Amino acid sequence: MPRKKPDLLSVGKQESAVDITIRKNNLKAEGRRDSVYGSVEHRKISVRAILKEIEEKSSSAMSRDLMFYMAQELSRRMMEKLRQGYAVELLDFGTIYPTLKGSLEEDATRADIRKHFDVGFSPSREAKKAVGSLVVGDIHKVRSQHDIFSVTDLFNRENPEGTVTENAYVRIRGKALKLGGSQSALYAVRLNDDFAGETAGVAPDVASDLVPAMLPPREDWIRQDRIYTNKPSCLEFCMEGITKGNYVFVVETSLSAGGKSLKQSVSVHSGVIRVVEKI
Predict the structure, then answer these.
(1) Would you state the pLDDT for residue 212?
(2) Residue 98 forms beta bridges with which residues?
(3) Quick one: which of 5, 41, 251 has its CA closest to 134?
(4) What is the pLDDT of residues 137-178, one digit of tens each?
(5) Which residues pair with 122 in a beta bridge?
(6) How far apart are alpha carbons 180 and 233 in whole angstroms?
(7) What is the pLDDT, as a whole number, of residue 169?
(8) Residue 88: in which H helix or E strand, if any?
(9) Which of 143, 146, 169, 250 could hold 154 in an S-S bridge, CB 3.0 to 4.6 Å?
(10) 194 strand-pairing partners
(11) Residues 6+ apart with CB under 8 A from 97
């Protein structure tokens, strides 16, 4: 009796943690208490990165370039079928298909109907199982439209989140961080050397609340000018003028979450970041 072929998504099942962002819900219903809504902080991965993992971890005789060519060819053929109106099965992930969005007038013409074409997606049972195996990691509560979620060292991935090496290439992730408008800058602010002792045993979110009161005068802040990525969700830069110690990063911008200019600048700070010596 032939063995059942395993589903692609059933291989290597394991629980993984994802970070969650909690925001206030401004749409209030009468008689209901204030509510919040959550979103998952997605980590993106490219097809090339996945193929590199396959090349490194499997005994396949195919090279990464050959596998990428085959993936591109498959993608082109599937896209062509979608253009022809087919519902296209995306391996074990689900089905993507043409659909109509919104409501139509009873006497809508072909031209009117065409404006309502959209893309629909129906996830497979296996995809739902894969997402169902996730566990909740860090929970970030957004108190305003501008916020910093995390600070990571892109050169030294062995450093835990919140720890970076001197002269590192750093990524700050958050919301509405894009620098712009009449007044904007990114600063590194060194904290008192006793800060770690003063906050020992204090919950991280409470310790973060104590930061503003412990910041030195603004003239002592270290401006960071080597910024290479400036997006609402992400700032990336090379640190300069920063030595071993405890710091916070302060983002000042005059742009709203929607990219509009503000009359007054807004500043948000990270949690405490530990800068260590380069080995």
Answers:
(1) 61
(2) 119
(3) 41
(4) 877 776 667 888 888 888 877 777 788 989 889 999 888 999
(5) 95
(6) 14
(7) 92
(8) strand 88-89
(9) 169
(10) none
(11) 82, 86, 87, 88, 119, 120, 121, 122
